[in-house]
């Protein structure tokens, strides 16, 4: 109660923050008269001067009023749009590293130009991140006119660019692109071999458009770069054939909320009978058990045209939040292969993780992060806890006049869709445009079929027609238009009302069911009522909707029975609406827990990732890899001699022999170990150094590139294997809970042990490889015919731990550097025309 009284007297924190910006907004307004007389050249000169001042140490905050005034004036000239005062408030909020919640149609795209130009003065680059390639291209071209007017450069990162094109785009002052492209470029950069191949600069400042979609909705899906594993795919089709013989509630049960399957005792016996095995849970049959579970999930928990579609012989995932296709993404742990077997398309090989990162950890690497969206307030706690981002609600330029009608609730899906078709037909007859929001492709096509029977012309916008998305959405506000769209289709595209529509009540939003998240419902509603336009919205629900069935409990059904509902009859009831909202809150809390748990596990991997990527970058850019190698040799020798040091002079002859044998195996150096003292260790170190010096002299100017190659190859190969080990550890760690142990703590502890082992293995394998490299010359036939010049070749002689390499001498473990080969420096030129010259 005290909080409520204080809020009434002092205003909320949001109100006080908005009020505190008033003097700054006034100062920007006062400067307007002084920038209006400036021509383009004078404006560009002023921007260039301020850029120099910032790079000399002047704080951006001091320049904010003048830069914002320049951007406002440049926008009038280049775009014909002048920033409103509330848009200036939004721009300041973004610059200060917060989330600006702005209603649909309030001009978020234009707002972003203010902090973008200000932060571009640092010369470190500004990233503006959008949800799809279309919006990235559109906004870069549209707002690019303003940036170029002020003398700034703009780049766009979209799918299909070459490394050279990406370098150019990232090198610009301002770079637009999608969250996926930015994240994958970060991972790919940490798999490159030469610093000249890197595309990204250090992560400076990012503005995330539709921040709730990217940082909340997509946070449950990590970015993964994978390569094909060697396991056969034949078992998926074999198991798929037996799935229909397993009966629900007899052989297995489903948990639809958690999307998991539990096989009963009868089910285990049935599988053992069909597959001809004695014990399905025998460790030797763990793969069979896994395939059966994934097959059951594919058949009973994942629906075609809801969770995925089949397009051109491939299973393509549909984003559950946006309704958009996600080509290139695959479900993990064999689920995607199980779906391919179910649909009768080619079963692709399983993949092994080569690099991965969550969006949470990628975006937290930026020096400064901000975001904008129409709906963030319901997730304010998560934004603060995970990203340390405060949500600020920005006032609208004009008052919102949209009417949000109470939900209509029906007993069954059939009744609900019949009523929707009837109401849409009536609205169409009246001429009022309607945007119908559905939660899946299947539902959008079902409703489309009903409207066809009613003779109502309409457009269907779902993942199957995403190419036409912006065009269809832009026309959705015209008189008589009926548009059916999956959840957030067309997000980021303004729906402008056509002629005469204002008098008809504006755009009407019709939701066919409630989403798991209130925020997604609010996004759909927000498509109407932009910038003071009239509009209306209403949701139609049924007792057998997924949300009601899974989370609404029997309480709602009980209320309906008491109200005496008849078939086909609808009711409006605040108690039911409240119960539905409570169900949504429970789902939101459940999803937050999933994201939080994913982050807690990934934080372990993130610490390891930072160490490995930092080490990798050091190897890649260092001009003196010799110093790094010397340090590694020292550490390896300490580890080899440590057992002798701990025995304090009382040496077992077998231990001395074992140490000598290990030294020979690791470094190919014969050493007589009698005491294991520091002098013997130093003698071994000098012998190894002499061996590497011989290599350095023989390789000449190529030595550093050869050393860098083996260091990076060892790091990448062992990191890949470590990721697989961590995946296996993660898969089984939940079972530790049965032993009264905290799975997360166990994961941290065992993950740390594995990581220590990884670091040693990387150093060990790198030094072993270098100690086995021999330089010899050979005369290539093609060279003999022309110049008769000897060509250098690096020969890898193998070792006891890498027997497999002897069988594959032409792998990249044995690179050749001949006159006509690509130069090792990464320039792309032939060696004879580059470094050799």
UniProtKB/TrEMBL annotation:
Sample GO molecular function, one term: ATP binding
Reaction equations catalysed: ATP + H2O + cellular proteinSide 1 = ADP + phosphate + cellular proteinSide 2
Amino-acid positions noted as binding ATP in the UniProt annotation, renumbered to this chain: 87, 105-109, 494
Annotated ranges, domain Helicase C-terminal: 416-588
Region (Disordered): 782-837
Alphabetized CDD domains for the sequence: DEXDc_SecA, SF2_C_secA
Cofactor(s), names only, from the UniProt record: Zn(2+)
Domain Helicase ATP-binding: 89-247
Basic and acidic residues: bias regions: 802-815
GO cellular component: cell envelope Sec protein transport complex; cytosol; plasma membrane
Ranges where the SecA family profile domain occurs: 3-572
InterPro entries registered for this protein in UniProt: Helicase_ATP-bd, Helicase_C-like, P-loop_NTPase, SEC_C_motif, SecA, SecA_CS, SecA_DEAD, SecA_motor_DEAD
GO biological process: intracellular protein transmembrane transport; protein import; protein targeting; protein transport by the Sec complex
Main location: membrane
Record family assignment: Belongs to the SecA family.
Name listed for the protein in its UniProt record: Protein translocase subunit SecA
């Amino acid at each position: 109660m005290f909080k409520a009284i204080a809020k009434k007297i002092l205003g909320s924190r949001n109100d006080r923050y908005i009020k505190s910006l008033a003097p700054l907004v006034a100062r920007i307004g006062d400067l307007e008269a002084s920038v209006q007389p400036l021509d383009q050249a004078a404006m560009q000169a002023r921007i260039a001067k301020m850029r120099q001042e910032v790079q000399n140490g002047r704080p951006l905050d001091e320049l904010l009023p003048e830069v914002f005034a320049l951007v406002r004036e440049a926008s009038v000239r280049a775009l014909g749009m002048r920033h409103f005062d509330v848009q200036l408030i939004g721009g300041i909020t973004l610059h200060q590293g917060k989330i600006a919640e702005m209603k649909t149609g309030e001009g978020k795209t234009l707002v972003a130009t203010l902090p973008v130009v200000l932060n571009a003065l640092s010369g470190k680059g500004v990233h503006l991140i959008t949800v799809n390639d279309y919006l990235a291209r559109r906004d870069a071209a549209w707002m690019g006119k303003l940036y170029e007017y002020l003398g700034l450069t703009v780049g766009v990162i979209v799918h299909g660019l070459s490394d050279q094109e990406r370098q150019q785009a990232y090198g610009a002052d301002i770079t637009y692109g999608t969250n996926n492209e930015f994240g994958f470029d970060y991972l790919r950069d940490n798999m490159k071999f030469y610093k000249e191949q890197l595309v990204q600069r250090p992560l400076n400042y990012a503005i995330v458009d539709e921040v709730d979609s990217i940082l909340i909705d997509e946070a449950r899906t990590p970015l993964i770069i994978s390569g094909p594993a060697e396991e056969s795919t034949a078992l998926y089709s074999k198991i798929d054939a037996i799935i229909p013989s397993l009966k629900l509630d007899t052989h297995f049960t489903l948990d639809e909320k958690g999307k998991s399957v539990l096989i009963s005792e009868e089910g285990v016996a049935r599988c053992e009978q069909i597959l001809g095995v004695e014990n399905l849970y025998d460790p030797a049959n763990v793969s069979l058990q896994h395939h059966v579970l994934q097959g059951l999930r594919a058949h009973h928990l994942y629906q075609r045209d809801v969770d995925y579609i089949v397009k051109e012989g491939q299973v393509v995932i549909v984003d559950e939040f946006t309704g958009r296709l996600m080509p290139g993404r695959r479900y993990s742990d064999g689920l995607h292969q199980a779906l391919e077997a179910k649909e009768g398309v080619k079963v692709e090989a399983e993949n092994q993780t080569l690099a991965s990162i969550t969006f949470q950890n990628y975006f937290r690497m930026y020096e400064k992060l901000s975001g904008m969206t129409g709906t963030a307030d319901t997730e304010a706690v998560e934004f603060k806890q995970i990203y340390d981002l405060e949500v600020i609600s920005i006032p609208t330029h004009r008052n919102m006049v949209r009417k949000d009608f109470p939900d209509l609730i029906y007993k069954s899906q059939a009744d609900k869709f019949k009523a929707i078709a009837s109401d849409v037909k009536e609205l169409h007859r009246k001429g009022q445009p309607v945007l119908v929001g559905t939660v899946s492709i299947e539902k959008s096509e079902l409703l489309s079929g009903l409207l066809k029977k009613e003779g109502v012309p309409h457009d269907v916008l779902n993942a199957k027609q995403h190419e036409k998305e912006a065009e269809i959405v832009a026309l959705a506000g015209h008189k008589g238009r009926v548009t059916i769209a999956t959840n957030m289709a067309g997000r980021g595209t303004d729906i402008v009302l056509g002629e005469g529509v204002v008098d008809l009540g504006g755009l009407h939003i019709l939701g066919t069911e409630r989403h798991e998240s209130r925020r997604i419902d609010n996004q759909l509603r927000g498509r109407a009522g932009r910038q003071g336009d009239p509009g209306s919205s209403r949701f139609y629900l049924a007792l057998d909707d997924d949300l009601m069935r899974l989370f609404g409990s029997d309480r709602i059904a009980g209320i309906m029975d008491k109200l005496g509902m008849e078939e086909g009859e609808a009711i409006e009831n605040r108690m039911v609406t409240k119960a539905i909202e409570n169900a949504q809150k429970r789902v939101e809390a459940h999803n937050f827990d999933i994201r939080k748990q994913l982050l807690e596990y990934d934080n372990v991997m993130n610490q390891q990732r930072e160490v490995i990527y930092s080490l990798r970058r050091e190897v890649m850019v260092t001009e003196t890899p010799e110093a790094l190698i010397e340090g590694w040799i020292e550490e390896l020798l300490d580890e080899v001699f440590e057992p002798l040091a701990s025995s304090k002079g009382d040496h077992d002859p077998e231990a001395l022999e074992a140490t000598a044998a290990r030294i020979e195996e690791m470094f190919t150096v014969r050493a007589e170990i009698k005491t294991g003292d520091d002098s013997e260790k130093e003698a071994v170190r000098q012998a190894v150094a002499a061996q590497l010096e011989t290599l350095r002299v023989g390789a000449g100017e190529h030595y550093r590139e050869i050393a860098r190659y083996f260091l990076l190859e060892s790091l990448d190969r062992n990191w890949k294997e470590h990721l697989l080990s961590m995946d296996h550890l993660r898969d089984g760690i939940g079972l530790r809970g049965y032993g009264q142990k905290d799975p997360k703590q166990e994961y941290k502890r065992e993950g740390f042990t594995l990581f220590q082992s990884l670091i040693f293995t990387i150093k060990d394998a790198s030094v072993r490889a270098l100690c086995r490299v021999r330089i010899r010359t050979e005369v290539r036939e093609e060279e003999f015919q022309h110049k008769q010049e000897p060509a250098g070749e690096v020969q890898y002689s193998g070792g006891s731990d890498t027997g497999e390499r002897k069988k594959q001498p032409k792998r990249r473990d044995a690179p050749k550097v001949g006159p006509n080969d690509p130069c090792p420096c990464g320039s792309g030129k032939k060696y004879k025309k580059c470094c050799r010259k």
